[in-house]
Amino acid sequence: MDFLRSMYRLSKERAAGLSPSAGRHRYPVRSFREALKGMSVIAEVKYATPAEGLLGIEESPSELASRFQSLGAAAVSCLTEPHFFSGSMSFLQEIREACSLPILMKDFIVDFRQILAGRELGADAFLLITEMLQADELEELYACGRELGMDCLVEVHGIEGLEKAIRIGAEIIGVNARDLSTLEVDPARHEMMAGLLPAGVGKVAESGISSPGRLLELRESGYDAALVGRAMAREDLRRELLSCG
Question: Mean of the per-residue pLDDT values for the chain?
């Protein structure tokens, strides 16, 4: 988990520089949970990965989000982490102004100021990674966002993370098939975990999804949605995947 430890430290440093407002917000919150049904596709604005570096995407965040919406995405995920993913908090507002889909702020969130800043810039939902946070941190951050009216995608990678998600009453659980130690993807993890997810929660498959056939398999396994990042860098895959959502 060296990668997660590094991201935790970097996120703490970034959070220390944030001064978000805790008062009224310009943007009303839209339901992320309600967009997840019938194998919805959450299309991701992502410009780089730790393994590959820059992905060669030339469109702006607003252009990408508009394109995703026109092709049939149910929601937009926005990477705001700058060091490894070339993201920015400012992307949230750009996307909010460009499309009407609910927006997930995807980052390595370790501090309530990140959630407040995301809410201020137009995010409707946020990500928490169970393996990255202690139980009390996870509970406090989850409660912070829910008090703001935001939905939370609680990400798990195995049984231990799932138990933590269940304990805080997570309403949306994402199973990430990527090993956070090696950054390699094991698609079989989606099927392995599917039957363990509680009834009634929104079930989201993450990582390693690049074909309509895979979306069908995930739907048959019981998932409500798939979060697709790397494949959204290619226009042909965007069309194929989003036409299936």
Answer: 95
- pLDDT for 19-63, tens place per residue? 887 666 889 999 999 999 889 999 999 999 998 999 999 999 999
Active site residues: 44, 46, 106, 155, 176, 206-207
Instruction: Answer whether 0.90 is exceeded by the pTM.
Output: yes
The domains of the chain are located at 2-9+33-242
Q: Answer whether CATH 3.20.20.70 is correct for domain 2-9+33-242.
A: yes
List beta partners, residue 205.
Answer: 175, 226
